[in-house]
Each structure stands twice: as structure tokens, then as C-alpha cells.
Amino acid sequence: xxxxxxxxxxxxAEALRRVRRxxxxxxxxxxAMLDDILADTVALAxxxxxxxxxxxxxxxKIYNYIPKGAEPLYRAALLYEYQNEVKKR
Length: 89
Prior knowledge:
two-stranded antiparallel sheet, 4 helices, globular
């Protein structure tokens, strides 16, 4: 678990500098702050895909728009990225 706190962006322009591209439902999308969100969620040590997916969606929505109908696709893509992040550690 990381002990140092990462700086959050001061404004939307700063958040846009921290965009990471992932595939969501066959389409590549850019998500602001995704690396920080993944690290923060891993640090929470949540159990179960449902709890992890809920947390990822909640945090991603802080910096990004997710269309209501596309939430299941985003959830699946975010869980995939989360699992890859866990494997790296």
C-alpha cells in the first residue's frame, strides 16, 4: 500500500494532462486520472468484483462522464484494468 498521497489536479486542464486510454466495448476512450484511481482502489483492498466495480465507477465519474447506458461496459473495462494493476504489484 502506498503511504504518500498523490496530488490531485488543481483544475480540469490539469486532469486532462493525466488521461489514459482504455478499450470500452470495442471503442478506445480516454479517462482522466485513471492511474490514480486504480492505485487508490487497490489500496482500499476491497473484496469482490461488485464492490471493486462500484468504487471504480464512483471514482471515475468524479473526473469523467460515463453515459448511463454504457456503465456496464465501463465497469467491465475498469475491472479488467484493475486486475492488470493488481498483477503488476
